[in-house]
Design goal:
Layout: H1 3-16, E1 29-37, E2 47-51, E3 59-63, E4 69-75, E5 78-85, E6 91-99, E7 104-106, E8 109-111, E9 119-123, E10 136-141, H2 142-147, H3 171-174, E11 201-204, E12 207-210, E13 226-234, E14 246-251, E15 259-268, H4 278-282, E16 290-306, E17 310-331, E18 341-346, E19 349-361, E20 367-382, E21 395-411, E22 416-433, E23 444-446, E24 451-453, E25 467-484, E26 488-506, E27 511-516, E28 519-526, E29 530-549, E30 552-567, E31 570-572, E32 581-583, E33 586-604, E34 611-621, E35 640-644, E36 683-685, H5 687-690, E37 691-693, E38 698-711, E39 714-726, E40 729-733, E41 741-747, E42 761-768, E43 778-782, E44 788-802, E45 806-820, E46 849-852, E47 859-868, E48 872-881, E49 889-893, H6 894-901, E50 909-913, E51 925-938, E52 942-951, E53 959-962, E54 973-976, E55 981-989
Parallel strand pairs: 1-7, 1-8, 6-9, 11-14, 23-27, 33-37, 36-43
Antiparallel strand pairs: 1-4, 2-3, 2-5, 5-6, 10-13, 11-12, 13-14, 15-16, 15-55, 16-17, 17-18, 17-19, 19-20, 20-21, 21-22, 22-25, 23-24, 25-26, 26-29, 27-28, 28-35, 29-30, 30-33, 31-32, 33-34, 34-38, 38-39, 39-44, 40-43, 41-42, 44-45, 45-46, 45-47, 47-48, 48-51, 49-50, 51-52, 52-55, 53-54
Length: 990
């Protein structure tokens, strides 16, 4: 059966059937169970009503089937009362059923013979084990988050989920663990779980506004506008194309009474402790990031426009955070070849959010939601916290986001449900040059320390290294039909999305100077300005079936994913080394089609709804934005070239012709003769990389888990997770072979902190022969078995509800990740993977297989809140996470290489790894945050809560970032955990 036939069958299923398979979505909840009489016989025809203030229609009703089974779906989170009635039997009522999103609560009933007026009411806590869904998820209500000492950003959820990690590739932006949310949204705007990569998607009401592999990651979560946040971390259903974290926001809605909240909290530098000791001073740390100012102010208000028909809810929030950054200075001698520490730098990030949500019960069965949000944000002095650079070598990033969306639900009958929705995101971004830096200032990198100063000079590409603008936009729509019975729960749906991205970036003077010990060593020429325009369309069709047979519930899903991308007409202005460029519209640059099965099962082990065994396996495509990469003609040129620079006259200016790519005057030959060539692609891509059925990069994810209610309100979950990757790619320079390289050895420096004290011979190093230097013609291919990446992990978590509102939750997560790229090194025999564990990625020569072991990847997280007498409450959040990876990247000079080779080399420098990756780590970080609250009741409906927060209560000072470039500053601390911080706040709820 070919792909076209499969697609036709799926479309036919979607159009023709009144139902297709589904499992409970991440936006709503469900109640399911069985009705029996006192003898244990099932009772068909029982009327089951679920009532809650969370429902604008107040009551949802179904009837048990011939097996006595029932299921009520599309329920908003809240507290429910479930009532069972049948002529000839007494009424059975179960109250206090608290529903979270993506959870199916098992509620069974035993009806006694008697009159309807005879009511048996059972009160108790809601079920905590989901015996039907296989999805692994964490749900956080607004009340839970409001009670905890956590930051005010999206990344706070990473601090509460045991398996969640901030990717080490983001260490330069995040500066490690965030103390009290003082690092703003950039601290953990993207996090991963179970060996995942940057594949996190953010949705609201099931409508996507950022996606894995692209989209805005600076959206600031407005907690006042949220009722719940559901974070899916495994067993994700066919409603999602990607398998990374799915963070779904359930917005707060108005009700039949007016209510609202006002919050104000903040702190200043006067309330932060110093945590720098002699140990850190010996590591070159002069101070930890300290608060300059932090404040959060906002208000929310909602209620009925028309009782039981039209509600509204609006929120407005302003959040500003600024940190002093010790050791980070502006250049007092800006514009010269010398860096002189001047004014101390400080970050200054702000976020503004305004939302409006209306809920309209258009008829007894038609419900419509409309939401609009506007944000105006800035990540200012971004990436400075943990990176080895001066203030002028970063940028101010300004964003604005507009996010309108509309959703509709229509339960045509008690069994047939229609859903639809549409959303858009408009997200322009502007990168500005830092104050004090001028367009004529050329970025400089000191190779002996890796220190960057004078101007920003990372790269110029579609990723935005430099200054300029980017316009991002996307629009997505979804439609689904569900048919629900007591035994089957079917759903079929369609999702489509259009994505656009236009960017134009440039670097000062199109150059980067590289000095060694203050003397010119080499330079990089850039194609600048550089920009791209990309367009993409995403289509997903899915069918799902949640089928219950006695105690077993099968979760069966199948999804068809299609992605295609193209570029419109593109014009790029002339730069220093290239002329103006025009590229005609090019269609169908990328086109993928994939079939992705999802299969799972949940078994109610004892039939009491308290113990479940679950298993799952599924295939997921890796999320993609609009980027077409090297397939885009505008990106098909070689953007940079490195050449040696011998400053013979000592004027710190390259006296040579940049347009002459060969050796001339003070400049050596470029390392790529195709530099700036608009007709020769930097990488020729094999057709299978960009087109075909099943050729898109993907992951398989599987899990086996056990869930048990140990006692009323106490639950235990133990799960094993495995993730493995497919359709990775590799590059082959067709103009060279391993025979075109000469092998040599280099003596490692003597240093007690190196393995074995250093001084050993590092062999297995290679340098390209002079006759082949600069000859590059890369071809990108699917790696097949040449590359592999596999994660195995175990999560153990517990949660408990106790006393009069006490909660505690937490767990431990450990994993093992093995990455093998050895067979992909087809050119340079020393070539290994590209390290992503260091702040500055470098070629990890010789180490093409890396393992992050079970003992190295352990982390523990726990949180809880407990009410005390006199309306007091105490809460805590505790984390223990791994420390940074210790690396030693030696930059060997041309002269050192020539001595080792016994011949001259054309390369200016070569980076050599002295330590095998993931074999040495800094100390773990232990972070304890505390909150003490006091409620003041003003009448029957108004409550004022005062909060006193103590972040990093233990005043820990673990290193969060280190300098991995071997030299005089090797292993110097770039950033530490911020010191103990006190924050004060007040909240009015009415």
């Amino acid at each position: 059966m070919n792909a076209r036939t499969i697609v036709r069958l799926m479309i036919c299923t979607y159009v023709c059937l009144p139902a297709a398979a589904w499992a409970q979505t991440a936006t709503t909840a469900a109640i399911a169970g069985v009705a029996r009489d006192t003898s244990g016989a099932v009772l068909p025809g029982v009327t089951v009503e679920a009532a809650s203030p969370a429902l604008i229609e107040k009551v949802r009703t179904v009837v048990t089937d011939d097996r006595g089974l029932f299921r009520i779906v599309d329920l908003r989170p809240g507290v429910y009362t479930v009532t069972f009635t049948l002529p000839g039997f007494g009424t059975y009522k179960r109250d206090g059923i608290e529903l979270e999103t993506a959870f199916t609560a098992t509620v069974n009933a035993e009806l006694k013979v008697g009159a309807l007026e005879e009511t048996v009411t059972v009160s108790g806590q809601a079920p905590i084990v989901d015996t039907q869904n296989v999805m692994a998820r964490e749900v956080f209500t607004k009340q839970t988050v409001d009670a905890l000492p956590v930051g005010l950003n999206t990344g706070m959820y990473a601090t509460l989920i045991p398996a969640a990690k901030v990717p080490t590739t983001d260490s330069g932006a995040t500066g490690g663990l965030d103390v009290g949310g003082t690092q703003s949204e950039r601290s953990t705007s993207v996090f991963t779980v179970h060996g995942g990569t940057n594949d996190m998607s953010l949705t609201q009401d099931g409508l996507q506004f950022t996606r894995g592999g692209g989209g805005a990651t600076t959206w600031s979560m407005n907690r006042l506008a949220m009722q719940e946040v559901n974070v899916q971390v495994g067993g994700i259903t066919a409603e999602s194309g990607s398998g990374g974290i799915q963070l779904n926001v359930v917005p707060k809605e108005g009700a039949n009474r007016f209510s609202g909240s006002f919050v104000l909290d903040g702190t200043t530098e006067r309330f932060q402790s110093d945590n720098i000791d002699d140990r850190l001073r010996a590591r070159g740390v002069t101070g930890s990031p300290t608060v300059r100012r932090v404040y959060n102010a906002g208000g929310a208000f909602g209620g009925p426009i028309k009782q039981d028909t039209l509600w509204f809810y609006t929120t407005h929030r302003k959040w500003d955070t600024s940190q002093w950054l010790p050791g980070k200075y502006y250049n007092a001698t800006q514009g010269t070849p010398v860096f002189t520490p001047g004014e101390l730098a400080s970050s200054n990030d702000f976020y503004r959010s305004h939302t409006l949500r209306t809920t309209w019960q258009a008829s007894a069965r038609n419900k419509v939601n409309f939401t609009y949000e506007y944000q105006n944000n800035c990540n200012c002095l971004i990436r400075l916290i943990a990176q080895n650079r001066a203030a002028e070598a970063v940028g101010d990033h300004f964003y604005s986001h507009q996010f309108p969306q509309v959703s509709w639900s229509f339960p045509a009958t008690n069994k047939l449900l229609f859903e639809a929705g549409a959303a858009a995101l408009l997200s322009p971004r502007h990168n500005e040059i830092i104050r004090g830096s001028k367009p004529e200032d050329i970025p400089i990198i000191e190779l002996s320390t890796g220190f960057a100063y004078n101007a920003r000079g990372d790269a110029v590409s579609a990723s935005g290294g430099g200054h300029g603008t980017q316009q991002e936009a996307q629009a997505n729509q979804r439609f689904a039909v569900s048919y629900v019975t007591g035994t089957h729960n079917f759903k079929t749906g369609i999702f489509q999305e259009g994505i656009g991205s236009d960017s134009l970036w440039e670097l000062n003077q199109s150059l980067t100077y590289r000095f060694r010990n203050g003397a010119p060593n080499s330079l990089i020429q850039w194609v600048s300005p550089q920009g791209t325009s990309d367009r993409a369309r995403v289509l997903g069709l899915y069918v799902q079936d949640q089928w219950t047979v006695k105690r077993l519930t099968a979760n069966l899903g199948l999804r068809y994913d299609q992605y295609w991308a193209w570029v419109p007409d593109t014009d790029i202005p002339a730069g220093r080394f290239v002329g103006a460029r025009h590229y005609d519209q090019t269609s169908n640059l990328l086109s993928f089609k994939d079939i992705n099965p999802r299969v799972g099962a949940a078994y109610d082990l004892f039939g009491d709804g308290k113990t479940a065994l679950k298993g799952f396996v599924g295939r997921y495509v890796i999320g993609r934005g609009a980027g077409t990469g090297n397939a885009n003609p505008a990106a098909a040129i070689v953007l940079s070239a490195t050449r040696t620079w011998n400053d013979t006259n000592g004027n710190f200016a390259p006296d040579c012709s940049f347009t002459n790519l060969a050796l001339n005057d003070e400049c050596g030959a470029v390392n790529n003769v195709n530099f700036g060539n608009a007709t020769v692609r930097n990488v020729t891509v094999d057709k299978a990389v960009n087109f075909g059925f099943g050729n898109r990069d993907y992951t398989w994810q599987s899990s086996v888990s056990f869930a048990r209610e140990l006692r009323q309100g106490v639950g235990l979950d133990v799960g094993y997770f495995r993730t493995w990757y497919g359709n990775q790619t590799y590059q082959d320079n067709t103009l060279v072979t391993p025979a075109d390289f000469d092998q040599f050895c280099l003596t490692a420096p003597v240093n007690s902190r190196l393995p074995g004290g250093g001084g050993n011979q590092i062999c297995g190093l290679y340098d390209i022969k002079a006759s082949k230097f600069g000859q590059v013609s890369n071809v990108q291919n699917l790696a097949g078995g040449r590359r592999s990446r596999v994660f195995d992990g175990v999560d153990i978590s517990m949660n408990a509800r106790f006393g009069q509102g006490g909660t505690i939750a937490g767990g431990v997560a450990l994993g093992n990740t093995v990455v093998d790229d050895c067979a992909a090194a087809v050119d340079n025999p020393a070539q290994g993977q590209i390290l992503t564990g260091s702040a500055t990625p470098v070629a990890a020569q010789r180490f093409c297989q890396t393992t992050v072991g079970w003992g190295d990847d352990v982390q523990f997280k726990g949180f809880g809140a407990y009410p005390l007498p006199w309306d007091l409450q105490a809460s805590a959040n505790f984390q223990v996470t791994p420390g940074p990876v210790i690396l030693a990247d030696l930059v060997a000079t041309n002269a050192e290489l020539a001595r080792a080779l016994g011949r001259p080399t054309s390369t200016a420098t070569t980076t050599i790894a002295l330590i095998e990756p993931y074999t040495m780590f800094e100390n773990r970080t232990t972070l304890l945050d505390l909150r003490f609250s006091r409620k003041f009741r003003m009448g029957s409906s108004r409550v004022v809560t005062g909060n006193f927060d103590m972040f990093n209560a233990l005043n820990s000072n673990s290193l969060q970032g280190i300098n991995t470039q071997y030299g005089s500053s090797w292993l110097d601390g770039l950033n530490t955990l911020s010191g103990r911080l006190f924050r004060f706040g007040v909240q009015l709820d009415f």
